[in-house]
Specification:
The chain folds into 2 domains: 5-107 and 244-250, Aminopeptidase (3-Layer(aba) Sandwich); 111-242, Gcn5-related N-acetyltransferase (GNAT) (Aminopeptidase, 3-Layer(aba) Sandwich), CATH 3.40.630.30. It has 7 helices and 12 strands. It has helices spanning 5-21, 58-74, 89-97, 131-141, 148-152, 201-215, 230-236; strands at 29-32, 36-40, 52-55, 79-85, 101-104, 107-112, 124-126, 162-168, 171-181, 184-192, 220-225, 239-250. Strands 1, 2, 3, 4, 5, 6, 11 and 12 form an 8-stranded mixed sheet that branches. It is globular. The chain starts with a helix and ends with a strand.
Amino acid sequence: MARAPEYRRLLNSMRTVFQLIARSSEGAHLIEVDGVIASITPTVPERSLPNSVIYESQESLIAALPELTRRYDGAGIEAWTVWTPEGDAKAAGALRDAGHALDADPAAMTLDLADLAEPPQIDHRTGDDLMPVVAELNDRAYGHDDAPFTRMFAEHPKGWTRNYVADLDGEPASCLLICPVDGDASVYWVATLPEARGRGLASRLLHRALWDAHEEGCDISSLQATKLGEPVYARLGYKSHGALQMWEKRR
């Protein structure tokens, strides 16, 4: 199925981000099998997000599934997921037959940064040294007592991302990071602490980060939005290109 140019750029950015994950913790690595890449994160074996697969064609994924299964099992990974564009029926069928289950279907969204208005004011910080804060805020915001984000990004390499943190009453309360890939300001790890929600922190912080990215030369932004997040991003001007299905295999 033909993909919109913006959608292809989103998938390309995702490949880069999962390469980054494969460099961000002890023992993490990337495997490549004929048009398929897979991040393997032994420090977080129980969660499928850091153990993700992106593919170029349905045929390449189907051919690689036995090898992927062998490699994930060999690394002691308990859960891994394949990101499958909506409409890839052959891939979805093969994954179902191989024991995967549809776990989530976030919306693939992009924004033309030329349409972005000047951002509102927000008390925020940026910098490489904020990655531990971003990881901790994600763990706290989503109630992860076992700290998967902190484990996932324990050795996050500097210079790959633009990390943003917004403060509330002098304490970190909301965060996100931008990973610039070939002019795409791809957005990841947006989180706000429960006690700080309802104040527009995340939307204002994202607006600020996108403005900065545009000034640095990015022309679009891409992200994957949950059902709750999709209307928030739509208000900023993001447009949906359909779902990205997450087919998880869990031992």
